[in-house]
Design a protein that fits this description.
Helices cover 60% and strands 8% of the residues. The protein has helices at residues 2-29, 33-44, 57-78, 81-114, 118-127, 133-142, 149-161, 163-178, 187-218, 226-243, 248-259, 267-292, 302-325, 332-340, 346-358, 363-392, 453-456, 474-481, 491-494, 505-512, 525-532, 583-602; strands at 404-408, 417-422, 441-446, 449-452, 464-469, 497-499, 542-545, 548-555, 561-568. A hairpin with a 2-residue loop joins strand 7 (542-545) and strand 8. It is of the alpha+beta class. The chain folds into three domains: 59-177 and 188-392, Na+/H+ antiporter like fold; 404-481, Regulator of K+ conductance, C-terminal domain (Alpha-Beta Plaits); 491-602, Uridine Diphospho-n-acetylenolpyruvylglucosamine Reductase, domain 3. InterPro entries: Cation/H_exchanger_TM, Na+/solute_symporter_sf, Transptr-assoc_dom. It holds the Pfam family CorC_HlyC.
Length: 603
């Protein structure tokens, strides 16, 4: 018995290490990392190289549920409340109406492809109706894909909040299929269950977030115990809400959203612990689900499952997204990209286990088909998400360049925090810009020697600066210590010139000799952009006006335009000597600087 336990520990630990090292393969060949984890589980399973026998669906569901709870809590923890606010309405619409539409379309496809009864076909549609939060978060954040705030927030919030509807539909349909003959369920009873799950999930999630914050901030513990309190509290909330009949997954996401947006003791170390825990949960969940699958049984459903994947990717998801997003002032490129980012993952496989646990006839076929759909979705959409984003031109440069920063915990509660920065060679500090007096470094680590700031002289590239400052100012300091943002001054994306948002369109029209539209004599360049974009403005939003494009270069925290770019569409445009308020001089100076910069780059 002891030998068997030791062997089990050895095998599991080796699989985890192997899964981690497959990330090297993923980064080298561009393979979706989650698909690689799933592949490792398949290779270790009963049809794989190790031949591990694992067919306990209940255990797999238990492990997967805990892992997904941790992932969703971290997803909420890392989501800024401002981002949630700007995306809440479209994201929730997509997470409810979009899931219902996808279920209906996929149910019809399954009914005709697999010749299954309608209830079982709709069950299959519900199982694959929600996007996978883990897959979306990992591919967007770790893939370095930077989108406009509103679109990225909509995608992430939708993927984190659409599980309750998919879970509700799955459980409802399982109950209908498994119900004894003669037992009936009214539509009203299911509506009550839905509102109970969502209501309990949100209310208890907020309450749980409050409790977690109070425990971390008020209870005096050893610093190493706070991450354990955070982890244990999130899982306790998950179990409590599920027991009371609410949506446990929604509750942990909401709790994480609340806890991540209020002051929290040792926030830096907690976030680092969360990242480690999330990676471990992700690896463990996909390895377990891979072990549960039996690829030798896939042949019977392989072809119809692949056809089902094509319908899901190219019909069901796009129809649902376009129907829900058409009224929210997203561009066609934005909606098309949101349609493409509908990756399926562990959530769908977990839901496919529910019919197995209920003993429904045909459940194994449903599980096998779902597994194939998930693998195909991760392969097709996961591999192409970057190229599709660039093809649709929905990416924007990062707001800041690379920055190396460590948040050090303080032994007692105080209104200060310690930040350690490594000076990037091309940062503003390395080029001689002064550090504000409210963030003067107390120590500088240079060539393995600790120096006091007044003895270190000028800051050099590679220095490590220990800065004591007030909480909440790390974002300001990041701008000083970070390297240059990639493509921040890209001519195609942000234009040839920089204009004040208050510059008049009439001046620009006279300068370049194109006709001004009637009634635009007193309209500013910012006003012209706002007139075309009715929603919140984001960086890189652009409006064509005659032969020029007006582009949003920067917005403030309230999404007000602070800087506008001007892009010339026609090569033969040249400034005319008719302008006021020095606009011509500014444009000429900008053009000369642009030519000088491009000339130095060519050399």
């Amino acid at each position: 018995m002891i030998d068997a336990i030791n062997i089990g520990i050895l095998v599991v630990s080796l699989l985890i290490v192997i899964a981690v090292f497959t990330s090297l393969f993923s980064s080298r060949f561009g393979a979706p990392l989650l698909l690689v984890f799933l592949g490792v589980g398949l290779l270790a399973g009963e049809d794989g190289l190790l031949g591990i026998q694992f067919d306990n669906a209940a255990t797999a569901y238990f492990i997967g549920s805990i892992a997904l709870a941790l992932i969703l809590f971290d997803s909420g923890f890392e989501t800024k409340l401002a981002s949630f606010k700007i995306a809440a309405t479209p994201a929730i619409t997509l997470a409810t109406a979009g899931v219902l539409l996808t279920t209906g379309i996929m149910g019809a496809a399954v009914h005709y492809l697999f010749d299954l009864p309608w209830l079982l076909a709709l069950l299959c549609g519900a199982i694959v109706s929600s996007t996978d939060a883990a897959a979306v978060f990992f591919l967007l954040r770790l893939g370095g894909i930077h989108l406009r705030d509103r679109m990225q927030s909509t995608i992430e919030v939708e993927s984190g909040s659409n599980d309750p509807m998919a879970i509700f539909l799955t459980i409802m349909l399982v109950e209908l299929i498994a119900a004894p003959a003669g037992e009936t369920h009214t539509a009203w009873s299911f509506v009550q269950i839905l509102f109970q799950q969502i209501g309990f999930g949100i209310a208890l999630g907020v309450g749980g977030g409050l409790v977690i914050v109070e425990l971390v901030n008020r209870v005096k513990l050893d610093a190493a115990l706070y991450p354990i309190v955070l982890l244990g509290s999130a899982l306790a909330l998950f179990g409590l809400v599920g027991t009371l009949g609410g949506s446990a997954f929604l509750a942990v996401y909401v709790a994480g959203l609340y806890a991540g947006n209020v002051p929290l003791r040792n926030a830096g170390s907690l976030r680092r612990f969360q990242r480690v825990t999330t990676w471990l949960a992700q690896i463990g969940m996909f390895l377990t689900l891979g072990l549960l699958a039996t690829p030798s049984e896939f042949g019977v459903v392989l072809v119809p499952a692949l056809v089902l994947t094509v319908i899901l990717i190219f019909i069901a998801r796009p129809v649902a997204v376009w129907a829900c997003m058409w009224f929210f002032d997203f561009s066609r490129a934005d909606i098309t990209f949101m349609s493409w980012v509908g990756l399926r993952g562990a959530v769908s496989i977990l839901l496919a286990i529910v019919p197995l646990l209920a003993g429904i006839e045909g459940a194994q076929m449903v599980f096998n088909a779902t597994f194939i759909v998930v693998m195909a979705s991760l392969a097709i959409q996961g591999w192409s998400i970057g190229p599709v984003a660039r093809w649709l031109k929905v990416t924007v440069p990062p707001r800041e360049g690379p920055v190396e920063r460590i948040d050090l915990p303080l032994p007692v509660e105080t209104d200060q925090e310690i930040l350690v920065y490594k000076v990037h060679p091309q940062s503003r500090v390395a080029k001689g810009e002064l550090i504000p007096r409210w963030a003067m470094p107390s120590l500088i680590l240079r060539d393995r020697q600790l120096l006091q700031s007044h003895m270190a002289g000028n800051i050099k590239a590679g220095d490590h600066l220990y800065v004591v400052t007030a909480p909440g100012r790390a974002g300001l300091l990041d701008q000083l210590f970070a390297g240059p943002a990639a493509d921040d001054h890209d001519r195609d994306l942000f234009g040839d010139f920089i204009l004040s948002p208050d510059a008049l369109l009439a001046d620009v029209a006279r300068l370049y000799g194109f006709p001004l539209k009637k009634g635009d004599e007193e309209v500013t360049v910012a006003g012209a952009i706002k007139r075309e974009h009715h929603g919140l403005l984001e960086r890189a939003d652009r409006v064509a006006y005659g032969p020029v494009d007006l582009i949003v270069r920067h917005v403030d925290d309230r999404h007000r335009i602070t800087e506008v770019g001007l892009s010339l569409d026609a090569d033969d445009l040249s400034p005319k000597p008719i302008v006021k308020d020095g606009l011509l001089d500014r444009l000429k100076a900008n053009l000369a600087a642009r030519r000088k910069q491009r000339g130095s780059e060519d050399k």
